[in-house]
Structures are given as structure tokens and as C-alpha cells.
UniProtKB/TrEMBL annotation:
Protein name per its UniProtKB record: LAME_0G02014g1_1
Record-annotated D-isomer specific 2-hydroxyacid dehydrogenase catalytic domain positions: 62-333
Any single GO CC term annotated in Swiss-Prot or TrEMBL for this entry: cytosol
Record family assignment: Belongs to the D-isomer specific 2-hydroxyacid dehydrogenase family.
InterPro entries: D-isomer_2-hydroxyacid_DH (IPR050223), D-isomer_2_OHA_DH_cat_dom (IPR006139), D-isomer_DH_CS (IPR029753), D-isomer_DH_CS1 (IPR029752), D-isomer_DH_NAD-bd (IPR006140), NAD(P)-bd_dom_sf (IPR036291)
Length: 348
């Protein structure tokens, strides 16, 4: 019997052994590095192409350069044999899930495994923004120390003590952030989710409404997925509701913030500083934002560690293997958890 065909989109850094083991039960195919969306769509419909026999797709965030978004056009073009798309990442906003659900194609992501590395990055950016470390670092590189005085003339920062942190999105990453922040002495943690969590998951955080969180937080910590409802949820109106001198930290997705509104607020001092790992149109980042000394930013490095990347890549393989052996992915995305058709999926 022929092995199931698995299409791997995107480069693999550390999970070569896992993919080699998968090769014992599946035929793994790839696309050329310089392949385009047009090439991919054509291959999907070419009966002479191995891609047209694909049953499971494993994809990375970077593979969008070869295929474009996983949108309605791409979903329509996929072979009828495709049973699942296994995405390597916690966020999967490159995939229009409803279009794949309509074709009874499962979509999985990699939750939980990203929590610790992302939370570590978040805390680094939060403390850096609170203390004005980026401003001081820039001044030192410009040889302004000691000529400009103490700390090379950087604005004096603030301690965590007495501050209220508003967690927008108390999921796995949000909870990991709270655990890391507690020893620093913050006075209060509040959070807002679409629905209040069970008490055992709140971990001492107080549930408040969205507007209330904006009004009372000294630090707004953003940890929500990007979707139609959350795009630009932090816009000029939301920022105007925040305290003067608020600190905003975002390691979720750039487009949950209206970037231009944030830039204006940073220039005016309404937002005293920001810690950013993600950007609205990354990898393109406005020079206007990059040039602001009150922005502590890194280029989407939240999970940029050997250990986390390896675990994520290997988990994608586990999702693929689960589809082959059981017909179902291990970590279906939340939007599909109640879909009845998933129960009917069979091993490949």
C-alpha cells in the first residue's frame, strides 16, 4: 500500500530526526525554495505532480513566501485528498480557518510549547520599557556617556513596585508572564478575556472589563490572537482611555495594535514607552517607529531559541503522525473544536 503523502512547506532547523522517522510511514514532499504562489496553485491541480496527491500539509510561518496566505483561493485549489493543515506556531492568522473547515480540512497549531520562551521575551521587553533601557543603550552607542551625565542622559525609569499590570489575554502565555512578573513586586494584576476564567486559572489576577483594564493599568500586556475581532483592538480610542504615561508591551501579533496610533501616542508621551516583539506589517517596520528611543523592540524573537524551535518542529511532526494513524490532529484550533465532522475522520 502506498504511503500517505505529506507536503512540508518551509525549512526545518532542528527536527531532521523526527522527519526522518516520519518518512518510514509517509512520503514527504517539498516545494522548491524559489517556488511562488502561482507555482504552488498550479502543482495542486497538476495530476502529474506529487503535490496533487497531498493528504497532510505541514507549514511554517515563513513558508507564506512560497504559497501566500492560506485563504479561500488556496483552500479551493487544494487537492480533495488533503485532510489536515498542521501549522508550526501558536498564532495561525495566516490561515483563514473557515475556508478549510468548509472543505472538512482540519487545522492544528502549536500551543503551550511557545509559552515559556514568549513569556521570557515579554518580561525582558516590559522591564526594558519600564526602565528606559533602550534609550540608554542608544545614547551609549552614540558616545553620550559620560558627556551627557548620569545614564548618558536617558530619562529616569520606574520600578515595578506599586504598579498595576493589565493582562489582555490571560491564556497560557499570559499566565506564564504573570508567574514571571510576580517576584518583581507589582502591586496588582488585572486581566480581560472574552469570558472570565475558572478561579484556579486566574492565579490571583482580577477579572475586569476591557475599558476598565485600559483605564487602571500602568502597564498593558498584550497576549491575544489576531483575528477579525481583535485587529486594531488597541486603536487611538483605546489608547486615549489609558493612563497618561502608560507602558504597552506586545508579543502577540502586531496588527492587534493600530501601529500609526501607537507611534503618535509615543511621540506625544501619552504612551511613555513600548516593548515590541511584533509589528503590524512585519518584516517591514516603519522607520518612524524604529527611530523612537522610547521603543524597546526586537525583530519577532519571542520563540527564537534552539530548544523551543526544536520542540515546536517536532510537535508538528506529531500532529502529522496523528492524522496518519488516527485521522485526527492532536491540537485542533479552537474554532474547529465543536465541528461534528471531525469525529468522522479516519486514519489515512
Amino acid at each position: 500500500m502506498a504511503k500517505p503523502v505529506v507536503l512540508r512547506l518551509g525549512a526545518i532547523k532542528y527536527a531532521q530526526e523526527a522527519w526522518e522517522r516520519l518518512g518510514q510511514i509517509a512520503q514527504v514532499v517539498t516545494v522548491e525554495d524559489n517556488s511562488t504562489r502561482a507555482d504552488f496553485l498550479k502543482a495542486c491541480q497538476d495530476s502529474g505532480s506529487k503535490i496533487s496527491k497531498t493528504q497532510v500539509i505541514a507549514r511554517t510561518f515563513a513558508s507564506v513566501q512560497n504559497t501566500g496566505r492560506f485563504d479561500a483561493e488556496l483552500a479551493k485549489a487544494l487537492p480533495e485528498s488533503v485532510a489536515a493543515v498542521c501549522h508550526n506556531g501558536a498564532g495561525y492568522d495566516q490561515i483563514d480557518v473557515s475556508e478549510f473547515a468548509a472543505k472538512h480540512i482540519q487545522v492544528s497549531n502549536v500551543p503551550e510549547l511557545v509559552n515559556n520562551a514568549t513569556a521570557d521575551t515579554h518580561v525582558y521587553l516590559l522591564l526594558g520599557a519600564l526602565r528606559n533601557f533602550e534609550d540608554g543603550h542608544r545614547r551609549m552607542l552614540e558616545n553620550k556617556w559620560p558627556s551627557s551625565g548620569a545614564a548618558a542622559g536617558a530619562p529616569i525609569g520606574h520600578d515595578p513596585e506599586g504598579k498595576t499590570v493589565g493582562i489582555l489575554g490571560l491564556g497560557g502565555i499570559g499566565r506564564a508572564i504573570v508567574e514571571r512578573l510576580k517576584p518583581f513586586g507589582f502591586k496588582r494584576f488585572v486581566y480581560h478575556n472574552r469570558n472570565r476564567l475558572a478561579p484556579e486559572l486566574e492565579n490571583g489576577c482580577e477579572y475586569v472589563g476591557f475599558d476598565e483594564l485600559l483605564k487602571i493599568s500602568d502597564v498593558v500586556s498584550i497576549n491575544i490572537p489576531l483575528n477579525a475581532k481583535t485587529r486594531h483592538i488597541v486603536d487611538a480610542k483605546a489608547i486615549d482611555m489609558m493612563k497618561d504615561g502608560v507602558v504597552i508591551v506586545n508579543t502577540a501579533r502586531g496588527a492587534v495594535i493600530d501601529e500609526q496610533a501607537l507611534i503618535e501616542a509615543l511621540k506625544l508621551g501619552k504612551v511613555r514607552s513600548a516593548g515590541l516583539d511584533v509589528y503590524e506589517h512585519e518584516p517591514q517596520v516603519p522607520h518612524e517607529l524604529l527611530n523612537l528611543p522610547n521603543v524597546c523592540g526586537v525583530p519577532h524573537m519571542g520563540t527564537h531559541t534552539v530548544e523551543t524551535i526544536k520542540k515546536m518542529e517536532e510537535f508538528v511532526v506529531q500532529n502529522v503522525e496523528s492524522v496518519i494513524k488516527t485521522g485526527k490532529v492532536l491540537t485542533i484550533v479552537p474554532e474547529l473544536k465543536s465541528e461534528a465532522w471531525i469525529d468522522d475522520q479516519k486514519p489515512l
